[in-house]
Amino acid sequence: MDEILIATLRSGTPLVYAALAGVIAQRAGIWHLGLEGLMIAGACATIVGIVLTQSVLLALIIAIAVCMLGSALLWLVVEKLKANQIIAGLGLTGLGLGGTTLAVQSIFGTQAAVSAPFGLPKIGPAFGPFESLSILALLMPVIVFLVWVMLRRTRFGLRLAASGEHPFAARSAGVNPSTMRLAALLIGGVLCALAGAELAAGSLNIFAQNMTAGRGFMGFAAAIFGAGHPIGAACAAMFFAVVGAMGIRAQIVFGDHIPHELLLSLPYIATVIGIWLSARLRGGTKALTGFGELRDQ
Amino acid sequence: MESDHETLLKCRELTVRFGEVTALQDVDVSLEANRIHAVVGQNGAGKTTFARVVAGLVRPDKGEVRMNGSAIAPGNVAASRHSGIELVHQSFALPPSFTVAEAMQFGADGGGLYSRSALERRWQSHLDKLDIQVKAGQRIRDLPIESQQAVEIARALVSDAKLLILDEPTAVLSPEGAARLFDQVRHLRDRGVTVVLILHKIREVLAVAETVTVLRGGLCVAGPLETAQIDSERLSELIIGSSSDELDDEDRAALTGAATPAHLHAAQTSEGIPVLELKNVSTRRDSDGPGLDSIELSIRPGEIVGIAGVEGNGQRTLVRTIAGLSHVSEGTVGLNGSDVTQQSLADRRSAGLRIIPFERNVEGLSLNSPLWENWSALGLLRKPLFAMISPGGFRRDCIGALESWDVVYADINQRAGSLSGGNAQKLILSREIDEAAKLVIAAQPTRGLDIGATAFVWDALRAARARGCGILFVSSDLDEIFDISDRVAVMVSGHIQAVFEPPFEIGRVGAAMTGAVQ
Amino acid sequence: TPKATAQTGLVALVHTQAAGDAGPVDSMISKLKLLAEERGLQTREVYAQDPATYETIFRTLGDAGAAVVISTFNEVAEPFKAVAPAYPDTKWIQLFGDPFDPPIPNVVTVSYDYYLGCYLSGIFAGHVSKTGKIGFIGGISIPPINADFNALKAGVLSVRPDATVTAAFAGSFQDPAKGQEIATQMFSDGIDYIQTDAAATDFGIITAANEAEGRMVSALDPAQFPLGPSSLISIVGLDFGVSLYNETQKALGSDWQGGTHVSTGIGTGVIDFILSPVFQEKGPADVIAKSKEVWPTIEKAKAGILDGSVKVPFNTVL
Amino acid sequence: MESILSGLRAAVFIVIALLLCGVIFEIAGYSAPLMFESILDGAFLRRGALEQALRWALPLFITALGVVISFRAGYFNIGGQGQFYMGAIAAAFVAEWLKGSPAALVIPACFVAGMAGGALWALWPGILRIKSGADEVITTLMGNFIAAFVLVYVTAGPLKDPSGSGQQASSRPLDAAYRISNSLGLSPTIIIIAVLAGVLVWALLNRTSFGILAGLSGRNPTMVEWQGARVWRIGLASFLISGALAGLAGTIELMGPNGRLAGGFLPGHGFTAILIALVANLSVLGTAVAALFFGGLASAALFLPILAGLPSAAIDIINAAISLFITAKSGFIDRVARLGKGQWTKS
Ligand SMILES: Nc1ncnc2c1ncn2[C@@H]1O[C@H](COP(=O)(O)OP(=O)(O)OP(=O)(O)O)[C@@H](O)[C@H]1O
Ligand SMILES: Nc1ncnc2c1ncn2[C@@H]1O[C@H](COP(=O)(O)OP(=O)(O)OP(=O)(O)O)[C@@H](O)[C@H]1O
Ligand SMILES: [Mg+2]
Ligand SMILES: [Mg+2]
């Protein structure tokens, strides 16, 4: 049983990091659909970094730098060029997925999965059965708490929220909402890098193309489901992980009777239900970014 | 002008253009320290723009702002705040989901990390010092408008403000509320804060300000003048300028708030069936504020009923209820003698209901759509959803209607958002006031309009009354309400506190607005 | 010009499954590269993700005067039938396909009986599993993968009728994290032998097996041996690369015979059930001993399949 | 004028996107000039390129028309992909059931089924959005993932082709009589359907109350509500029509070039359709032009790895870069475009 718990924690951790990135962006007024792309970039950069530098720390730094660069690009396009957040975010995701494939191809001359000799440090025997979890999994609750503190207990967090909720109020207090969004996206970039690092180097130590497999989108959904609150979003992300684990369980137990595809769709179905529930409870999950205005650019 | 006060704020040649519009043109103003200054002007005169330039929110195309003799970096809020300038906005700028304490904290210096209780203690004491009766833990969106304004003022005073600019602070207040605000302003002045009040009622200027500066069409036409040396006649001339000839005295007084119009015109309403009859109507509380509480109201054909009251006392819910956009939990809504409580807005519109909504740019128009589409919406809705239509026909009808309502526009396909406020409102009038109109709800129909446009709207409503329409006129401006209404109902917290017949007395109506039972 | 290219010999591989699978596609690509080096060929690898594009791709290659076009899996059969006759100078090779009826003179089809390897894995699993619980993790539940599972199950049950064989799918051939999660659940359920069939997803399955002792995985590719020194016990090898190499060599030669079908499987070296030499050194001694002990059974089954005395059902429905 | 402006803007940002790709490619060690040359070659210049471009452009055009309708109505339905799948699946089922009946019956029935399938897959996100306010971006995106699994399920399950070795994850091939084009995918029937769809959608948007009201409520639903409209009907109708068009495109792919359902069927199609609609600034005519451009790009995508030796991820990167920039605005371009024309379009 411990093991299933560990596996679920393991699969939930990247989702939580991605969800936190989504929450921070959402607070600052950005509907961040580039999470998937940043996450795969983080995963790729971590593994490639380890292979090339033989150092986890350097690899993490590279991953964080890459994801921050991607975030800055998104900021540039969305804030400075006023592009639509959703389309630009999806574009960033595409860039991440295509770019990592290309990077692997051009560095290693093949698209084969890249495996690293080692990955993130493990938390070690002091934690008993949990010893095989990576430090990022251990740190996850701490980071959730830190993000919560940042958003709910610092002036920076208030300014971030004001920039998202009422940019004019922020401006009249001398806060530049655009700069705050950059900060939010950059912090989100760091978190996406961690999400990717945990996914690829938490225990697998491998990078395969498209290995995020929609986890970034689920992180985004968790951010919405969690009502833009870091703890809520983290719970939602863990909930998705649990649903995924239950789907596997169901495949093992009922696989002969229920189509596997239905069970594999469970996380997506759960996401839809989650979005629907949170809309019911809170009266709409709609971003206030004037989609009808797309026509009027 | 000799005086023993030092100059605190000095603006030189401020010029601001927004595209084609020149909002400010070479404005030179010097304001002395430790006094209460007023800046007046009609809608669109450039008052808000002036305040925003001083506060650093708008970067002027030309000119400079000096505080205590040193120039402030233009268009930089932080620099302006640093030199002691604080602005309280016309429509407040507080994130609704924040608590009062958070709203203060996010603009304040110091203390990056906080605990909720420490934060609330810190700002509660600040509020207490300013004598503002608000709990620091309450959320902005749960506060009544008056408290929100108080919070805005408290927020502006978190740092050590030397110059406090209040942009039309009385627009949302009852006369008593305004009087209390003025007391507080004097109190602040005594504590060494220089106050600039942006106003557009002469009555208020004369009541509180020591000097007055008049803007018209972006120009500074006079001032600062000592209020002690000016009378309301002269001030009203300065504000209105030459266009004042066309207005009758009462309208003119109503427009400048120079004197309370004593509406003597007795209601000449026909007997007939009431066009609107609300019987014991209640609704639940919603995001717009308190729900309606047993509303009894009827409007006869050819009658204008004014709804007075401080904003946020259920006026919006009232309008939405009559429109069928709010769920009625109790009571009945009657239009032309038939019960429409269960009917949709489409049906009510067929029965002759017309609405000039509160938010011209949100509820009234689709700003990015062409004029003719905006105008045709009502006509299109009368057809089946997938009926073939002829846009050419609609365009022609629209051109005809806009012409007869004197709307100035360039092209029938231009965006509604490119119309000036007055013309936009005329477009709405041309759509809503047609032959079949029986009941017209006019919700703040003159808000933000200049004098010509305001007079136009009043005349249009009076003409509709003459044709036998019933009109529900909602406004927070008592002068305007008194000028146009045949009866005035005062709303407080979702119920009708009192109903007045002419002649109206500002004192009694004002008292009713604060909830005092008559 | 197209003709010039044809003389220099453009050899194109159109793979319908993404590269990076640590399996068939990667091995084909590496063998194609090897061939290119050896013979100075101009080569192309084209990933055709979308069935709607196959025909266009083949036509483009034909127009470009490709000498040899190699493609994979059954879904390219129809496009081959449509395109190959129009480009008689190009030689078309379909790896993993059924014979054409009627044959087309410039097309060679190659089929593999991979499921037979899985059957052998099943027999082996039936013997070495301690718990009698065997797992199978596929990428996506598509017919050939389903057939592999059914053969595995038949193999297990043929030697151990009371065993259970459980299938699960990761939903992607590129999701190692999901593979790890599924394998972890299977192992903690008491399953101690998993046959993988999920390309890059396999990496996660092997990782899960490495997390505790007594877990066995049978994978797909010799390159995977070192990843699980004491857990990766065997593979069901399908060397697409070798097959590609052989068929292309033949096609480039002068005595190529088109319009034929090559059926490879057990016994030709292309498909085989192979014990991991690494495991044989580093695995737990008792399992090594056991596997040596049962090996003759495997050999016997193999021979049985080859001489037809053992019939393995090919069933593509779960 | 507006359309020239948006066309110019699209062109400028596509160039910027391609430059970004060029940089990425140079960094990755490929030659950017070669890439651009190959794209041009593959899209338009080589023999038969135009037919190829058209073959991809037509279904993209129809899917993009659906996107135009829902975006105009203010709903961000990015589920064209899933609706496309569901349309094809529904049509494939009907073709299977009616096997042996005359083509004159089967073909129309398949089209009806395909459009209904697409519409139904758009219905549930529409209802969740309109009745509960659940963000349709996420629900339609999840709908795409789920539909992909449904496609796998039906091609390996109920519709699996049992002929041959039965190894294929695809449905039985359609009877030749039911096909509306050969496998190259260009036929008069398909062209007529696309033109008809274009004309009908144009008329729907510009000559019916629905079209004008959808445009108004897309830009400002509150205003339309205050005019007494039941906005949900307009919204739901636009979801349904948009889904039906995607389903129609799926049906065409099934009954035309593909002739059968297979897993991995046109995976990026729905997303490209969004780009097309946006490049076209949601105008029907513009959509036709943009579809041709992206059709060319799609045909170049096949050409790049074959002849230029570039990895196929190149095209993903190009599409992604275009989508990153396609909705961007620039004051500079607007000012240039506005020189010498009436000023009332100030925004
Ligand atoms: N951001 C802006 N963009 C374009 N035009 C603007 C903008 N802000 C103000 N204006 C225009 O500048 C002029 C002056 O506006 P301003 O808001 O300063 O007037 P005001 O005196 O405060 O009016 P009111 O009494 O209605 O508040 C008006 O014509 C207005 O339409
Ligand atoms: N570029 C333009 N092209 C055509 N018409 C224009 C243009 N700019 C403004 N107009 C029209 O000219 C009129 C005057 O515009 P302006 O913004 O100055 O209004 P205004 O004087 O404040 O009027 P109002 O009294 O209605 O507020 C408006 O009706 C507007 O529609
Ligand atoms: Mg103002
Ligand atoms: Mg104006």
CATH third-tier fold name of the largest domain in chain B: Rossmann fold
CATH superfamily of the largest domain in chain B: P-loop containing nucleotide triphosphate hydrolases
**Can you tell me the residue ranges of chain A where pLDDT is under 50 for at least 5 consecutive residues?**
286-297
Following the backbone from N to C, one meets helices and strands of chain A in this order, namely HHHHEHHHHEHHHH
Number of helices of chain A: 12
Portion in strands of chain B: 15-25%
How many strand units of chain B?
20
Q: Please, could you describe this protein's structure?
A:
The complex is a heterotetramer of chains A (297), B (518), C (318) and D (347). By secondary structure, chain B is α/β, with parallel strands linked by helices. Chain B contains 18 helices and 20 strands. The longest helix of chain B has 16 residues, at 175-190. The radius of gyration of chain B is 24 Å and the shape is globular. Chain C is built from 11 helices and 12 strands. In chain C, helix 3 (51-63) runs parallel beside helix 4 and helix 5 (114-128) runs antiparallel to helix 11 (285-307). The longest helix of chain C is centred in the last third of the chain and has 23 residues, at 285-307. Mean pLDDT of chain C is 88; it is low at 1-7. Chain D has 347 residues and is mostly helical. Chain D has 2 domains: 1-46 and 303-347, no CATH class; 59-279, no CATH class. Chain D has helices at residues 2-27, 32-45, 49-72, 80-97, 103-132, 136-156, 188-207, 209-219, 221-226, 231-258, 269-279, 284-308, 313-325, 331-338. In chain D, helix 1 (2-27) crosses helix 13 (313-325). Chain D is globular. Classes of the chains: A mainly alpha (297), B alpha/beta (518), C alpha/beta (318), D mainly alpha (347). Chains in contact: A-B, A-C, A-D, B-D, C-D. The complex binds adenosine-5'-triphosphate (ATP) (2 copies) and magnesium ion (2 copies). The site of one magnesium ion (MG) has 5 residues of chain B, from helix 1.
Q: Summary?
A:
Chain A is an all-alpha fold and 297 residues long.
Write the topology of this structure.
The complex is a heterotetramer of chains A (297), B (518), C (318) and D (347).
Chain A: H1 2-27, H2 35-53, H3 56-80, H4 85-108, E1 114-115, H5 135-152, H6 155-165, H7 167-172, H8 177-201, E2 206-207, H9 215-225, H10 230-254, H11 260-264, H12 266-282
Antiparallel strand pairs in A: 1-2
Helix pairs in contact in A: 1-5, 1-8, 1-9, 1-10, 2-3, 2-4, 2-8, 2-9, 3-4, 3-8, 5-6, 6-8, 9-10, 9-12, 10-12
Chain C: H1 2-8, E1 10-15, H2 24-39, E2 42-47, H3 51-63, E3 68-72, H4 77-83, E4 91-95, E5 107-112, H5 114-128, E6 133-138, H6 143-159, E7 164-169, H7 176-188, E8 193-197, H8 202-210, E9 216-219, E10 232-238, H9 240-252, E11 260-264, E12 271-275, H10 277-282, H11 285-307
Parallel strand pairs in C: 1-2, 1-3, 3-4, 4-5, 5-11, 6-7, 6-8, 8-9, 9-10
Antiparallel strand pairs in C: 10-12
Chain D: H1 2-27, H2 32-45, H3 49-72, H4 80-97, H5 103-132, H6 136-156, H7 188-207, H8 209-219, H9 221-226, H10 231-258, H11 269-279, H12 284-308, H13 313-325, H14 331-338
Helix pairs in contact in D: 1-2, 1-13, 1-14, 2-3, 2-12, 3-7, 3-10, 3-11, 3-12, 4-5, 4-6, 4-10, 4-11, 5-6, 5-10, 7-8, 8-10, 11-12
The structure holds adenosine-5'-triphosphate (ATP) (2 copies) and magnesium ion (2 copies).
One magnesium ion binds next to α1 of chain B.
